From TrEMBL:
The keyword Metal-binding applies. This is Cytosine deaminase. GO terms for molecular function: cytosine deaminase activity; isoguanine deaminase activity; metal ion binding. NCBIfam families: PRK07572.1 (NF005748). Keywords: Hydrolase, Metal-binding. GO terms for biological process: cytosine catabolic process. Residues 40-400 form the Amidohydrolase domain. It comes from Tianweitania populi. SUPFAM superfamilies: Composite domain of metallo-dependent hydrolases, Metallo-dependent hydrolases. Gene3D superfamilies: Metal-dependent hydrolases, Urease, subunit C, domain 1. Pfam families: Amidohydro_3.
């Protein structure tokens, strides 16, 4: 009956000692002690088994380019944008493909099998789009890669920005992007959102906007985005990424704004690693955290997910392809340290992000795609604390990555011979 059975698994919803049967690329059974065997079996030994991790906000055209052509010495967003402008004319399709494929190898090992990448369309050569369309096809057997046509220098601000974005969509990019706060004026930012939502409606595409990635509390393009979403009937198909200006906005204004966002069914994508690194740069003390109002947005019923944004590129010299690192940072920045809070954070890395990306067949129920990861942790709380090893990564019912568990050997008189951080250090309660 089964191609593969994962036995003795703990599930994100708290069920323990569960067997998961996989056949024909689907999950076909989830129950205790399946009384049959399979061609291949894995004993999860009471470890957490989860759907794969998702990254709904990334820049794969820039990844692994750290140091080219120089380092970002100030560490600021604006120098990162300027540095990318220096690198962009030097980009070749071959180099872009090679870096992207290397990153995808890393992503697989981290159990990250669903990625939405913004693709800079500001260079009329569109070498970035050409390269990532090729990468999308090459990684399709193991990674679902969505591509956003992203006018990095502004839809109106960049020379040929309007025509380049349309050409990129004609090349097969999946989603309409924008950056209204980087246009020359607030009004051009407003008009860009109207134009971009119209393009999406005409083409039947989703929208994902870098929206108000600034400390300026008067940057209120999210208000326009919600209005245009409703105007063009795009509810549920629009994502507002970053939204860091909300961190600095007046509370009364936000009390009006969040219900409008909920009405428009805006998907919110915060990027904790990058937001905490780049925002508040003009502050002395106290310094603003910068990340958008995640707890309040979740409480209002909006679909909130988290993106990694960058790994070793002009904006961020860190990064490891590990979405649990993103969730770990989110807990700290949002001060969401409670048990239920952490469950919501884990959902933001998995099921919420899958909803943002419109993924079909995603999840851990009978009938879902046979895509799973086994982590060296007992539950989602411990997974966020430990950022544990991915013991196995399964795609369409086949193991595509394995890692040995992290075990520390000790040579101490009277002490244990080894330590398993996923078993030996769990909450006393």
């Amino acid at each position: 009956m089964f191609d593969l059975i994962v036995r003795n698994a703990n599930l994100p919803d708290g069920r323990q000692g569960i067997d998961i049967g996989l056949a024909g690329g689907k999950i076909t059974a989830i129950e205790k002690s399946l009384p049959v065997s399979a061609g291949q079996e894995i004993d999860a030994t009471g470890r957490l088994v989860s759907p794969p991790l998702c990254d709904p906000h990334f820049h794969m055209d820039a990844t692994l380019s750290l140091g080219l052509p120089r380092m970002n010495t100030s560490g600021t967003l604006l120098e990162g944008i300027a540095l990318w402008g220096e690198l962009r004319p030097l980009l070749t399709k071959e180099a872009l493909v090679e870096r992207a494929l290397r990153y995808c190898d890393l992503a697989v090992s981290q159990g990250l099998l669903f990625i939405r990448s913004h693709v800079d369309t500001s260079d009329p050569r569109l070498v970035t789009a050409e390269a990532l369309v090729e990468v999308r096809e090459r990684v399709a057997p193991y990674i679902t890669l969505q591509l956003v046509a992203f006018p990095q220098d502004g839809y109106y601000r960049a020379a040929d920005g309007e025509t380049s974005l349309q050409r990129a969509l004609d090349m097969g990019l999946d989603i309409v992007g924008g950056i209204p706060h980087f246009e020359r004026t607030m009004d051009e930012g407003r008009r860009s959102l109207e134009a971009l939502c119209r393009i999406a409606a005409d083409r039947g595409l989703p929208v994902d906007i870098h929206c108000d990635e600034t400390d300026d509390p008067l940057s209120r393009h999210i208000e326009t985005l919600t209005a245009e979403t409703v105007r063009f009937g795009l509810q549920g198909r629009v994502a507002g990424s970053h939204l860091t200006s909300m961190h600095s906005m007046d509370n009364y204004y936000v009390s009006k704004l969040i219900p409008l966002m909920a009405e428009a069914e805006i998907n919110v994508i915060a990027n904790p690693l990058i937001n905490i690194m780049l925002q508040g740069r003009h502050d002395t003390y106290p310094k603003r955290r910068g990340m958008t109002r995640v707890p309040e947005l979740m409480q209002a019923g909006l679909n909130v997910s988290f993106g990694q944004d960058c790994t070793m590129d002009p904006w961020y010299s860190m990064g490891s392809g590990d979405m649990l690192e993103v969730g770990h940072m989110a807990i700290h920045v949002a001060q969401m340290g409670g048990i239920e809070d952490k469950k919501k954070i884990f959902d933001a890395l998995t099921v919420n992000s899958a909803k943002t990306m419109g993924l079909e067949g995603y999840g851990l129920e009978v009938g879902c795609n046979a895509d799973l990861i086994i982590l060296q942790a007992a539950d989602v709380i411990e997974a966020l604390r430990l950022k544990p090893t991915r013991l196995a990564v399964i795609k369409s019912g086949k193991i595509i990555s394995k890692s040995a568990p992290r075990i520390g050997e000790l040579f101490l008189d009277g002490r244990p011979a080894s330590i398993d951080p996923g078993r030996d250090y769990v909450p006393a309660g």
